[in-house]
Specification:
- The chain has 353 residues and is mainly alpha-helical.
- 86% of the residues lie in helices and 0% in strands.
C-alpha cells in the first residue's frame, strides 16, 4: 500500500505534471509543424539522405579534383538522375492514363468474372446482385483516378528533385565545416559527445541506405527484365515502382508485386502469360525478401517490425508518400538520439529490434 501511495504522490508532484505537459505540448507542436512544413521538408530530407550516400564519394573525389569540380560532378549527376527518374515516371504514367480507357472494358469484365466466381463457389462473398455493374464501374474509375494522382505526383517530383539538388549542394559545402563549428560552440567534452552521436547516426544511415539501394536494384532489375521479355507494357515504370516501393517495408513489396501482375491480366486476353509473369515475379520477390535483403542488410535496420509499421503510419501521415520511403532511416536517427540521452535510453531499447 505504501509503495502504491508513493507512486501516486510521485505522479501528483507538480514538477512531474509540468514535465509531462511540456512533453505533450512539444510533441503536438512538432506534429503540427511537420504537417505545415511538409512541402519544404520533403526535398530537404531527401537531400540529407542523398548526402549521407554521397559523402564518402565526395571525400574521395576532393583528393583528386578541386572542391567546386567535385561538388559540380556529384550534385549535377545526382540531380540529373532524380530528374530522369521523375521524367520517366511521368511519361510512363501519362502513357498508362491514355491506355486506361481502352483497358476499362477489360477491367470491368475481370471484376465481373471474379465476382461471379465468388458467388458461385463462395456464396455470400461476391458482389450483391443488382449492384455488380455499379461496383465494377466504380473500381475502374478508382484505378483511373489513382493513376492520374501518381502522374501529378511525378510531375511534382520535378520541382522537388530540383530543390533537393540545391539543398544537396549546400549540405556538401557545409559538411566539412560542421565538426569545427561544433567544437567552437561547445566545450571539448560536450563537442566530442555530440560528434560521437552524429558519427553513429552517419554510420547507421549510410549503412542502411547503401544496402537498401543495392538490394532494391537487385530486385527491380530482374523484375523489369521479366516484364519486358514477357511483353508487358510499361516495364520501365513497373521496375522503377519496384525499386521505389522496396524502400517501404512490408507494404511496398505487396504494391510493387500486385500492380504489374494486375496490369498483365488487363493487357492479355489469355491467362497463360499473366500467370507466367505472376510466377516469375513471385520468385523474384521471395528471393529478394528471403535471401538478398538478409544478406545485404543484415541488422542495419535495428528496429522491431511493430516499430517499423508504426513509423510508416507516422511519417506517412506527416510527410505523405515520401515520408513512407524515409520512415526507416528517420526512425533510426530518432532511436540513436534517444539512446544517447540517459533519460530516454529505455525508450530507445524498447524501440530496438
Amino acid at each position: 500500500m505504501h509503495a502504491g501511495t508513493g507512486g501516486l504522490e510521485r505522479w501528483a508532484n507538480p514538477n512531474t505534471l509540468r514535465t509531462a505537459a511540456h512533453v505533450v505540448i512539444v510533441l503536438a507542436g512538432s506534429w503540427w509543424l511537420l504537417g505545415q512544413l511538409a512541402t519544404v521538408l520533403r526535398p530537404l530530407l531527401l537531400a540529407v539522405f542523398l548526402g549521407y550516400v554521397l559523402l564518402p564519394y565526395y571525400a574521395r573525389l576532393r583528393l583528386h579534383v578541386p572542391v567546386p569540380v567535385a561538388l559540380g560532378v556529384l550534385v549535377g549527376a545526382t540531380t540529373g538522375v532524380l530528374l530522369l527518374i521523375a521524367f520517366g515516371m511521368y511519361v510512363s504514367l501519362s502513357g498508362l492514363s491514355v491506355e486506361l480507357p481502352m483497358l476499362r472494358p477489360r477491367a470491368v469484365g475481370l471484376v465481373r468474372d471474379v465476382s461471379d466466381f465468388l458467388n458461385e463457389y463462395l456464396p455470400g462473398t461476391g458482389a450483391v446482385a443488382g449492384g455488380t455493374r455499379s461496383a465494377e464501374e466504380q473500381a475502374a474509375d478508382k484505378i483511373s483516378e489513382n493513376v492520374m494522382w501518381l502522374a501529378n505526383l511525378a510531375a511534382l517530383g520535378f520541382l522537388e528533385a530540383a530543390s533537393a539538388g540545391l539543398y544537396l549542394l549546400f549540405l556538401l559545402m557545409e559538411s566539412g565545416k560542421f565538426p569545427d563549428r561544433v567544437r567552437a560552440a561547445y566545450p571539448p567534452e560536450k563537442a566530442d559527445e555530440i560528434l560521437h552521436v552524429f558519427g553513429r547516426i552517419n554510420a547507421a544511415v549510410i549503412s542502411y541506405l547503401k544496402a537498401k539501394v543495392l538490394s532494391s536494384l537487385l530486385v527491380a532489375v530482374p523484375v523489369g527484365a521479366i516484364l519486358w521479355a514477357c511483353g508487358v507494357k510499361f516495364s520501365l515504370l513497373w521496375a522503377l515502382l519496384t525499386f521505389a516501393c522496396n524502400f517501404i517495408p512490408y507494404l511496398g513489396s505487396a504494391v510493387a508485386y500486385t500492380l504489374p501482375i494486375g496490369f498483365a491480366f488487363l493487357q492479355f486476353e489469355e491467362p497463360g502469360r499473366p500467370l507466367l509473369v505472376a510466377g516469375l515475379l513471385t520468385a523474384c520477390h521471395v528471393l529478394g525478401a528471403a535471401v538478398v535483403e538478409p544478406l545485404i542488410l543484415g541488422k542495419a535496420m535495428g528496429l522491431s517490425p511493430l516499430v517499423v509499421l508504426g513509423a510508416l503510419s507516422l511519417w506517412g501521415l506527416s510527410l505523405g508518400l515520401p515520408g513512407m520511403f524515409l520512415a526507416v532511416p528517420l526512425t533510426v536517427v530518432v532511436v540513436l538520439v534517444l539512446d544517447n540521452i540517459e533519460a530516454t535510453r529505455p525508450i530507445a531499447k524498447l524501440l530496438g529490434g
